[in-house]
Automatic annotation (TrEMBL), chains A, B, C:
PANTHER family registered for this protein in UniProt: INTELECTIN (PTHR16146), INTELECTIN-1A-RELATED (PTHR16146:SF46)
InterPro entries named in the record: Fibrinogen-like_C (IPR036056), Fibrinogen_a/b/g_C_1 (IPR014716), Fibrinogen_a/b/g_C_dom (IPR002181)
Biased composition (Polar residues): 88-97
Entry-linked NCBIfam families: GGGWT_bact (NF040941)
An example Gene Ontology CC term for this record: extracellular space
Protein name per Swiss-Prot or TrEMBL: Fibrinogen C-terminal domain-containing protein
Region (Disordered), start-end ranges: 88-107
């Protein structure tokens, strides 16, 4: 059955062309579908297709909390000393100017980059990020340059949501961030923060999660949530506060991704990991995050 | 079972590679072939192959003026304030120095980048750009960040050639630009301009096309043509003047793409959309282009 | 016939998902396997798979010294005047700061970039670089922007190893460079150089190879070897000294690739082709390399 369907797809995609609509009903489009329809239960790299027939390969977590999690993106800090320079694809590669308030715009466009195998060594975004209709997200913090087979072993923080919150925001982060643009000066802190969703920990805990950030930001946030589109005191926008809900407005010390402009000492807070190094690289004192979280990629999954 | 399937891959990839010449006559290599040989009539994303067996996916326009148009490239201005910086793949990412007269060289090399689905959000170039042998070109101006399904609806300017001019220039733009290098200081204005080819409008008109540029450049150009490899007063080279034939030499205000060096107030005119902002971003006064054309990607098709 | 084959490819590639482990023993994973198991003897582009099921296309040299050589990477200098700027993927795109001692880290991570067809026009690295288990390497110096079909014709220097040295270093350069990091300040010259392996010339000779470098560096090196992870007087690290074994410590004039920081007149020696232009671009006097080697891509093969 599965093979027969796949045969149709192959015929459609290479010999080109049954319509997009027909493809929609014939190729696995998520790890969840692979698990439910094709009974795949092994973690690893799989080929998926978008409704428009784009075939891509990504990692599926088939075991955590029921499995069926599709890796759609990773946020990797290639150089925390480079402030919105080459490699800052989740914020800006344009230098941090107010002329580019949205930066590269990756959070709400269809541009893709990187590969699943290199997801801990480079920024990664696949067509599933905008093409999959999902309900929940999972996040893994995996040390940089780890091989796929070791991600589960070496990840020091892993959590997922269970509220099906994405149903209220268009079914994926692409649509969520269309509603909550990651753009400088679109709103103020705390009035215009996006949703904070409670999380369930698979590796680590609210406490260990909180301790990855500097003591000053711990005093200005609550662990156990994932927050989307936070804003700081200077109206800079950030995409994701991993594992925390901000209660203050210096959120550039616990949130990742962002628009293209961070006014305070610009461009010092601009970059994929924003201002994790404010009081020293990996210092984990005052506002600085720990070396552990600074040197780990943030993998984002859908289900 | 899986072993059996995998053996098929082995067998197939061997033969696929073996029969480069066979593939030339058996796998669709253009949307024109898809339409004529496979009778496909629906616009959308399709898989094509190059003569060398590179498989890629792109968009086919199967309906305009007989259909069979293959999307091979898009020129997208990611940051008009960045002058030959990251993202200026159709001019230079090297800063605008005379040491790099050809810039990134994308107009006449085989480097590819981007994806069809993101063609209005990022620069795009597929193997069809150099691998397809075509006769005519079509150009669409589509607002940035539009989804594939809305390109036709939202494009405000669309035209095509009907003269089969590419037969005289090697069958594609890759070969045309080998004859007319997009390189600083290879010639003078107007003596060494490349061909200007009359166009037929599918959306918009010569007048609406002309009005997208600043009044000063309107006085120095004639609409209703597409011009290749224009040169300006300072011997900078540009790739395409969309919808116009220059009659003066300040062509950096109506032409896109370019070499790596623009002498006048260097690098102020250097970038994928050259000097569309000379008298203000989107101002559409004096030499400045309109906001509409400044914030739209230029999609290039072959047939 | 060919359509049927293409159909099998796609059929199988979607099904690759079904089994990662079984793939290890069934899909061609190198040009050597294509030659030995499938009796392919024609040079050209072929599809291969990694043990993890990543399918990619690359060039196979099926004839030199028994054939079965897989192209896994190319080092291309896009702008020798740009010192560790955009396009320096085999050194650093981050500007040459001591804060990024490993630069982009491409020599020992799984990030991939470029395409086989554009291997002489852009940096190239495919999954074979880290996924293939090989014994020997071959290196070709091919003029920039040459088409695949002309590489053999136009290459002016080609050599290979026959010692099976990779068996001692993990079977590929990815693992070799894990043992010998291409990173600033990991060791001193000459104490901590990596292996120098004797080579056999297929095109050119030890003498013609030597003459491609400046006279001063000729006096400080011996031709007829390929050297990995050389270090210079200021403790900067370089990846490959093509065709030579350094006997001095100014190795930035005959080695390519590198970490992110070169202390001497920083960043003047930082880049994919390090300091080939120290006494003038292409001058081939004092420490400067010839124009011929400066404007040629370095293609790296495994067998």
């Amino acid at each position: 059955m599965a093979n027969w369907i796949v045969l149709l797809v192959a015929f459609a995609s290479v010999n080109l062309s049954l319509s997009v609509r027909e493809l929609e009903y014939s190729t696995p489009q998520s790890c969840k579908e692979l698990k439910q329809t094709y009974k795949i239960t092994q973690d690893g790299l799989y080929y998926l297709s978008t409704p428009s027939g784009v075939v891509y390969q990504t990692y599926c977590d088939m075991t955590t909390a029921g499995g069926g999690w599709t890796l759609v993106a990773s946020v990797h800090e290639n150089n925390l000393y480079g402030k919105c320079t080459t490699g800052d694809r989740w914020s800006s590669q344009q230098g941090g100017s107010p002329n580019v308030p949205e930066g590269d715009g990756s959070w709400s466009n269809t541009v893709t980059f990187g590969t699943a195998e290199a997801a801990t060594s480079d920024d990664f975004k696949n067509p599933g990020y905008y093409g999959i209709r999902a309900e929940d997200v999972a996040v893994w913090h995996v040390p940089n340059n780890e091989l796929v087979g070791r991600w589960k072993l070496t990840s020091f923080l892993r959590y997922h949501t269970e509220t099906k919150f994405l149903n209220n925001y268009g079914g994926n982060l692409y649509n969520l961030f269309k509603q909550f643009p990651v753009k400088y000066n679109v709103g103020s802190c705390p009035a215009n923060h996006g949703p904070s969703v409670p999380v369930v920990y698979d590796v680590g805990s609210a406490t260990s999660n909180h301790n990855l950030y500097g003591p000053n930001i711990r005093a200005n946030s609550v662990p156990g949530f994932i927050t989307f589109r936070a804003i700081n005191a200077e109206r800079a926008a950030m995409a994701i506060c991993s594992g925390v809900k901000p209660t203050g407005c210096n959120n550039e010390h616990c949130c990742i991704g962002g628009g293209g402009h961070f006014p305070e000492q610009s461009p010092r807070q601009c970059g994929d990991f924003t201002s994790f190094d404010w009081n020293g690289y990996g210092a984990n004192t005052e506002w600085s995050a720990s070396k552990q979280i600074t040197e780990a990629a943030v993998l984002i999954f859908y289900r």
